[in-house]
Amino acid sequence: YMNPWSFWCLRLALRFVGHLMIPTVPFKELFFLDTAKEFRKALKMPLIYVGGVMGSGSNGVISNCHNSGEIVGEDYVGGILGSGTGLTSCSNSGTVTGVERVGGILGNGYTVKMCFNTGMVNGEVMVGGVAGRTNGYLQNSYNTGTITGIKEVGGLVGYCLKGNVRNCFNTGEVTGSELVAEVIGSNNGGE
Question: How far apart are the first and last CA of the chain?
Fold first, then answer.
């Protein structure tokens, strides 16, 4: 049995470390988990807020970053940032795979400027070459990677909620079943 405080501490530690040594009950031995993904699987936690640079962040700007590794998660999955705001001059060339709110640069959030994606992006709902879902500014950014999803799939943005997309383009292949477009898959009040 793990009390709620211990469980909370382990969840918090997961956000900051990639390797953890976890004692087994009744503390007779230690087992080593190579990745945060294995740790979450051991605790039966969903893979949410997954990014190549940061999983989640809202106060600040992430700039001049690049990811070339494979990113795998379930919800809020991005090549650079899973969920948050403030991305400038970032790029992704790695494959990004998730289920919902999956983007080559940003899974969910706003304010993306001068960023580009060349990697493949695979998901189910709200899948985009630059952002899976955004409700803010997407400016001077582009996608050349292949984008695959089921619903709300776009070459730049899967789902745009009252956002502003300016001076952006897509040349990558976009495939899906419902609400699929070369630029924005689904637009709800955006420009």
Answer: 51
